[in-house]
Queue: 3 jobs
Job 1
Amino acid sequence: MSDALPRVVTLRERAGDREGAENLARQLADDGNPEGMSRLGRLREEAGDRKGAENLYRQAAERDSSSALNFLAILREQTGDPKDAENFARLAADLGSPDTLYRLGRLRERAGNRKGTENLYRQVAGRGHARDMPPGNSAFDAWWPDGLDPDGQPIPPWQ
């Protein structure tokens, strides 16, 4: 199956052709394509079928799909399972996608979970992605006004 099909799924979605997007995503998923499984899962989630979405995300995750792991992490966080959410986010980060750790941190920050937020932000920084966190709009700046070095250690104030 063509590498262009996932892009066509996106184009169909943007054009408002949900049925066409879902048919193409299903074709990809049926062929074992993890991106197709993730996209079909997202479409199912948007339609309110969380169980079907999670099943598709898990199938894609078994094929090392970082986007599926990202979706699983957010889904688990939304359903009140922060431990599972963090495990999925860590697995995604291991595959080179640390942004879910950051997104979970933002969700926990909004929920007032300072300890959970700091833990997740330190994991992002510890993976060498501290520079990727947006400045000025999170507790990250309040905790570490001078930032973190790539190893996740606070940078002392400049004198």
Note: Residues 133 and 148 are 11 Å apart (CA to CA).
Job 2
Amino acid sequence: MFLRDMFGTDGVRWAASHLNPDGSLRESRAVFDEVLRKRAGLEQRRCMNSWLAREQEKGPLNLDPALLAPTQAVCFLAGKQFLEGASALADEAISKPQLERTTK
């Protein structure tokens, strides 16, 4: 659960930096989603690179699939959680103006 919360929070922070002061998205949702997918992939690669660097410090890299597969899964989930956290904030930013219009 910790990993999920950590990367989801990072995604929300990243998405918040793409909001206007009024809470709306700075760019279209399509552009936001494209940039978000790239950023989530970057987070996944950072996770793997970090793990590889730590393993390399221990000595020659052991790229045994039994050792590598769980790490790849964790890093995939880290990227996915980043994406989901950011998407949730973007969804909220888009629905907020609609909600305000319907309640007036």
Note: DSSP finds three helices and no strands in the chain.
Job 3
Amino acid sequence: MLIPPRAENGTGEYSFSDSTTTLGPVSYTHCLALRQRVLWPDKPLSFSRVPGDDSARHFGITHAGTLICCLSVFYQQEHCWQIRKFATLPEWQHQGAGSALLNQVIALLTQEGARRFELDARLSAADFYRKRGFSPCSAPFEKKGLQYIRMVQQADGNPATEDLSR
């Protein structure tokens, strides 16, 4: 299991007890292969690009020089960010890497003034997000042949009150 990061080390990265593991900003081009491998393995690499990638912020966990987990955050409006394209290598899933990355990114953006986080979760991953404070705010919907549900988290820890009929 991956031990949660200790502290920011002055470079925008977080160190782990294992000195070969870091968490911090990455370029979206580094995320593309991981996104494709985990989220869309039957699609070409270009399918993993999304509009706004060049202006979004991208974060990842690197272990021994390999990107093992990444996510991207897209500014939506004042104090609101959308989390997209969250991917963890299969061999690193269920070991705390995704939780560590999500928690650190939310903490960083909250320090910067964010108050709301939104994401479209695959239904198969909705429980992961529920356990981390996200609440459904839509009915399930289909996108690119998969079932999703919009989820939201308020940075103050209070459940978001949303109209679920959207």
Note: The two ends are 38 Å apart (CA to CA).
